[in-house]
Prior knowledge:
903 residues; alpha/beta; Aconitase, domain 3; 4 domains
Amino acid sequence: MSEAVTNPFNHLLSELKVGDKTYKYYDLNKLNDERVKRLPFSIRILLESAVRNADNFVIKPEDVENILAWETTSLKSVEVPFRPARVILQDFTGVPCVVDLAAMRDAVRRLGSDPAKINPLVPVDLVIDHSVQVDVYRTEDAVQKNLEIEMNRNRERFQFLKWGAKAFNNLQIVPPGSGIVHQVNLEYLARVVFNNNGLLYPDSVVGTDSHTTMIDGLGVAGWGVGGIEAEAVMLGQHVSMVLPEVVGFKLTGSLPEGATATDLVLMITAILRKKNVVGKFVEFFGPGVAALSLADRATIANMAPEYGATMGFFPIDSRGIDYLRLSNRDAEVVSYVEAYLRAQGMFLTHDGTQADPVYNSVVELDLSTVVPTLAGPKRPHDAVPLSNMQADFQACLTNPVSFKGYGLTADEAKNEVKFTFSGDNKEYTLRHGSVVIAAITSCTNTSNPSVLIGAGLLAKKAVEAGLSTLPYIKTSLAPGSHVVTKYLEKAGLQPYLDKLGFNMVGFGCTTCIGNSGDIPSELESAINDNNLVAAAVLSGNRNFEGRVHAATRANYLASPPLVVAYALAGTVDFDFETQPLGQKADGTPVFLRDIWPSREEIEAVEASCVLSSMFKEVYENITKGNQAWNALEVTQSTLYEWDEKSTYIHHPPYFTSMGLEPSEIKPIVKARCLLNLGDSITTDHISPAGKIAKNSPAAVFLESLGVKPADFNTYGARRGNDLVMTRGTFANARIVNKLLGGKASAKTLHVPSGEEMYTYDAAARYAQEGTPLIVLGGQMYGSGSSRDWAAKGPFLQGVKAVIAQSFERIHRSNLVGMGVLPLEFLEGQSADSLGLTGKEVFTIDITSVPFTVNQIYTVKVEGGAIDSFQVKSRIDTEVELAYYRHGGILQYVLRNIIKGKAE
Length: 903
């Protein structure tokens, strides 16, 4: 707000004395409302935020009442505002955020106002962690070599980010080579409780990566949003959200010998996907919580996007306080964190004095029933017990094409081929299930010392037994922070991982996001030429088709020890119970059970080798960068000097023609269907990701500008250039498009001409013809990572609406944020059930009925089996109506800032 406001809840302000200091806080106990103690801990954080930020304008007393009445309002789709304390970005999603801010400054100047008005109003941390690729591996200097390649490959965008850190207030950059954003957040950035000039309040965060939820394991409310929504929060907007249902997940017992936190989270993911927790909070409680380490909780919280929840929340308890001490948080900070949370009733005691909160529903799991588990071969929630892995994979080979099938004939399932590996000039045999990538990577597991130490001990025992891995397997270890390096070295385990090929390759998100790098060309040719279902095993959180590597059609998530085990086995078509991994020198067979480390061994190493001093050493220099980063020269300026020749950073077109007032809403008239898609279309299918394929529209464009194929880099690295990204939208070769008869392709049908062409080329032709576009989809459209380009790309291709059976939460929000209308078929209906082929002409007159939340619209159809059908608008809140009226959330914010109405 541009004028002073009075908080109607200022009477709740209280003092809290901790040591010799006195702090202020808004005391929820002074509400004198018994409903507070019944609220889930996660909802209490929303309540405190509403009380503290109430202004009788954006956040009103009735919003506080709605949260207090959560037991009933959570079932009624009631909208509440939430103002997060901070924003966290990674570089893939952070670059376009900074690009948009720079473009907004230009727009403010063009519209006659001060560009310096565009500045983050809350703390923003950007961790450069998504640009490193596994180019060099299985060598001692892999980390340094990959960092050098990363710096050279991304110099232009890194210079832009460094400019942004100087140009904008409240923007801190954590340089490349420092670690994975979520692990850095957990170990260093998280405040848990903010101290803002003596006012204490809970830490909360939204991030442009869906796995922002990892911080929920430390009692910090955090979840992923699209880059578009994050930019709005940075500029002072609140998050408009429907007050969520909360599923209580009761844990009892303790993990049995041989089971890991990864096994637990894969089982939880499978359980909750069946429960359908999309759009809900999941809050963990029960005696089993006390048995889990903070790292185990973070592992579970990290996977919330995979089980579909907004958050997987663990209230902070004494273990959380111990973790703050271990990770070298200041003693004074730890003291006021604990004192504040206890005073507010936000501290979980485990002593029997607290009644369990009320939940909308409860799921229970006895930790003692957890067994070693993988997930795959195409989705993270398809859990497979290790004991059933071989049979499951063999069944997948001949099952019909699906998430659990490849559609091979019985004869095709026996395919094998010999190839000569250039690394040692020896001949090897490849079969279905041969492991070609084995990667210990991703924030999910490399934040957890128990599973990494377990992998190291397994490697030690394997080496001592004389076992080795096949040399053509691309093995790698990419930890989430440098603390991992220190405790693996202190424990003496890294040399054994090195001997099996698991050398450190970098500190960032690698294989899990498709930054796996190339595999040997002769290996890739052997796989592709013989239609082999080659495998990757990774300790990550994502294994969607085409994500890890184009040559690996079977991708399994597993704990770090199991990643090592499958690298030793060389195939996922393996039964560890009956098949030995090899033999000792004396001929004695070695089974996995012979080298699997005990829980006692792991805990002993963790207790002696994971030290607070390691966190201190790593994080006291975290923002000072590396030599190559520090050498980047940047000119300081308020406005960015755009280089029209740049293929990395380009001025986006969102604000170039906007005026001070929004245009009138218009109907969507005589639109064509760009793609007709089925269920579980992910943002990996929609958003440009991974390598830029030869001959693709993006490749043709880059070559026209003189960029050589060797320098294409990835779509992720070029997210700051809309001209590249628009050409890469819907360019995933695994998209199954009904307009092409259901075949997987990066192409679509230009319906009027009947020509098959790349989706971007079809969109460009429709644009030339003045034809608006829609997309038809099935269940859970837009599931997966929180990718802003999954909304920006379709918008720039001319898509005006997406009609699907249901939407994933973040993607639906992003579509609205870009001015694309998300519409749902009515219950029980779909494109197929209505006889829609996608070849029809569609008209949606959204102006003939009131423009309201969840309005029902009629879609008129020409040239099809039906004349019309009805859809439900998934614009879910009043604020989203305003965003759509303005053409998008950024246009809405920009106009308010110029008019002095910024919050």
